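Posting for a labmate who doesn't have an account.
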Amino acid sequence: MHQPSGAAFDAVLLLHVGCALVGLVATLAATTTAGRLERSVSSSTPLSEPLRRYFRPGFNWAGRIVYGIPVFGSLLVAMSSGTYALGERWVLGGVALFVGVVLLGEGALWPAERRLQRAVSAAVAGEGRVSDAANVRRDARAMQRAGGAVLVLLVAGMVLMVAQP
């Protein structure tokens, strides 16, 4: 099988891999920070500055960079001059894994993160302690579970893309 090459193909490949790596790091950061928040709330200590900073209200652009994965992946297939095809099992497997990432991210991870942003923002406006600790712990655990599952799917996708079985 002829391996596609060229500067344009290499650039798109770097963007594809870069989106996967940034998504992996952003998800890892979200998952571990949610764990730190859960521990902080459970111990009834005031929220640390890094926790308040992380859960500042706003859109998680770093997490959404994963949407570049199928965009650049599709471009790679198109630029491969027939070497790769959308009907190949490993490509379809990657698409299926990405669908799982999106469902978990949009359905559980990022909604829990938005709820935690509101709770932490309210705590910052108050005395630095969250008022609804039970819901914050629940959302932090939901964020950790969904983030862990997203991490597994992203790593599985990376392995699949490298192995191309």
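Reply:
Got it, the structure tokens are right above this. Residues 7-163 form one domain.
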